[in-house]
């Protein structure tokens, strides 16, 4: 097999977006996937395209990436199910309502459109929510999509530009310009981009932790929910680095189904359903929307997110000049895929980026971890 300019490890939504961006830059690209395209962390996600503001760097990348999604939205195939549903950040009490106003100020400074809803306006926007909520912040330009099909779309466009897909190829080692497969074969490339989602075995010393999550999808109930609904307490849940947590997070699908989350667990690498966590997650959802209690769930699944301590992904070169990373997106891999792809290929080609790439560089972590 001839040498390539770039070998990408992992055909999730981030890897596939990187393959497309690299192909558009004229690079000879091969992408290796041990399972199904978009079938790992990508398939386990909700598909919420959301601007988050935990830090200025997180705000910059999610806002940039959301703008890319919105630009490409008219070209996306129907199967991607992209919709600008908007996010409603729901405040349960006056304390959380103060956070609504703070969040609105942050978004306004960044040029992100948002609108504060009082209790009456919230009830009109989402009549199935319980009464007594304090209000919400509507972020109208956030979206939802179906992640596995989005990954397939990126890859199909990349393959149309000449990208080679190696399916059923499990990578056992990579670095120094070589990718070694479990079947005994290998390929050479000038650069390697590791985009393997929660599969961090290839660089086990990276400071990335797996966080397990549960999702449930219901039967079809069109019109029950109109926006992506997230309790403001979700942010507290996402910040917990050690304890298990759940939060009200529900998404309407184009099919009329409702996708209900969310949970976060450390230290459980199994794919088995934790019924105590699932019960707690659903009780939390019913607390915000009692109507859910009478609906039928048809499937539950789990997945793992790859999280860094500072909640920012690792995008860019490592101490091995042939090895680049696009990993550690935690729950924002779907949102950040297009922006991360641009940053990753910019770094690979020494191009200037639209946003400051420094906060995401792997060099911010201990270099010995990357070497290990």
TrEMBL record:
Q: Tell me which UniProt keywords the record has, alphabetically.
A: Oxidoreductase
Question: Pfam family of this protein, just one?
Answer: DAO
Q: Give the UniProt entry's GO cellular component terms.
A: cytoplasm
Q: Which residues form the FAD dependent oxidoreductase domain?
A: 5-345
What molecular function does GO assign, one term?
oxidoreductase activity
Q: Which organism is it from?
A: Terriglobus albidus
Q: What is this protein called?
A: FAD-binding oxidoreductase
> According to the entry, what is the taxonomic lineage of the organism?
Bacteria, Pseudomonadati, Acidobacteriota, Terriglobia, Terriglobales
Q: Which InterPro entries match?
A: FAD-dep_OxRdtase, FAD/NAD-bd_sf
